[in-house]
């Protein structure tokens, strides 16, 4: 079991550090609104990952590969949500000063970031297919699928937590050092375009779910 967990941790690490909408959300929140807001976004993503892991253990994610319609519905919803995030960022980038989402208070900013983290992850069907297709390959013969899936999900969540902590820390430090409104506006513009790019990639992805 230890060997299987170690092998999974190595593969998952390579996937987790790859750029994607989840990490972009954490970086943007950390630079623009500080480490705590970035951390809240990260916690939201981790909650989404844990949800996908539990769903995989229960066999629910098999619906994504068994039903192309179910996969497509979730894919389109996820793409539309990324469009919303992208357009929101571009609108902030056009403002006189890049106003943070948490303008109503720090607590509200963290709550918004948390909700966006959960939604960004759960509305991405590729996250569900990732758990469903990768984890079973590391379940040793004779081991319980349900318990091992939860164990490997926990390993993945811990890895992501450490990675997002480093991202949030580095990004918030950059944000503290660069206070110029022009920099904040450019940040919002770049992240807005990136979110729209991820949305287009998800919306026009026609690959079979089982091959993701």
Q: Which secondary structure elements does this structure contain, and how are they paired or packed?
A:
Layout (H helix, E strand, L loop, with lengths): L1 H15 L4 H13 L1 H23 L4 H5 L1 H27 L11 H17 L2 H10 L10 H33 L3 H23 L9
Helix pairs in contact: 1-8, 2-3, 2-6, 2-8, 2-9, 3-6, 3-7, 3-8, 5-9
Describe this structure in words.
The structure is a single chain. With 212 residues, the protein is mainly α. The chain has one domain. It has 9 helices and no strands. Helix 2 packs antiparallel against helix 3, helix 3 runs parallel beside helix 6 and helix 3 runs antiparallel to helix 8. The radius of gyration is 18 Å and the shape is globular. The two termini are 26 Å apart. The relative contact order is 0.22. One of its GO terms (cellular component) is plasma membrane. InterPro entries: LeuE-type. GO terms for molecular function: amino acid transmembrane transporter activity. Keywords: Cell membrane, Membrane, Transmembrane, Transmembrane helix. It is a multi-pass membrane protein.
Mean pLDDT rating: 86
* Cα shape: globular
Uncertain residue ranges? none
**How large is the radius of gyration?**
18 Å
What share of the residues lie within helices? Answer: over 70%
Amino-to-carboxy terminus distance: 26 Å
Provide the structure class: mainly alpha
Main beta sheet, described? none
Q: What is the H-and-E element order? A: HHHHHHHHH
Number of domains: 1
Count of helical regions: 9
In terms of DSSP E residues, the strand content is under 5%
Counting DSSP E segments of at least 2 residues, the number of strands comes to 0
Transmembrane segments: 43-66, 73-90, 143-166, 187-204
Pfam families: LysE
InterPro entries: LeuE-type (IPR001123)
Protein name: LysE family translocator
């Amino acid at each position: 079991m230890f060997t299987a967990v170690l092998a999974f941790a190595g593969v998952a690490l390579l996937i987790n550090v790859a750029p994607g909408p989840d990490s972009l959300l954490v970086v943007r929140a950390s630079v623009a609104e500080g480490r705590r807001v970035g951390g809240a976004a990260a916690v939201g993503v981790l909650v989404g990952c844990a949800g996908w892991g539990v769903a995989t253990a229960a066999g629910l994610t098999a619906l994504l590969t068994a039903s192309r319609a179910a996969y497509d519905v979730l894919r389109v919803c996820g793409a539309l949500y990324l469009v919303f995030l992208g357009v929101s960022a571009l609108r902030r980038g056009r403002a006189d000063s890049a106003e943070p989402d948490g303008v109503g208070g720090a607590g509200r900013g963290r709550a918004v970031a948390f909700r966006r983290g959960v939604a960004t992850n759960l509305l991405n069907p590729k996250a569900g297919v990732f758990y469903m297709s990768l984890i079973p390959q590391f379940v040793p013969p004779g081991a319980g699928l349900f318990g091992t899936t939860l164990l490997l999900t926990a390993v993945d969540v811990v890895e992501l937590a450490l990675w997002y902590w480093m991202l949030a820390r580095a990004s918030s430090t950059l944000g503290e050092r660069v206070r110029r409104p022009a920099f904040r506006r450019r940040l919002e513009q770049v992240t807005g375009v990136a979110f729209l790019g991820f949305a287009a990639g998800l919306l026009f992805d026609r690959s079979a779910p089982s091959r993701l």
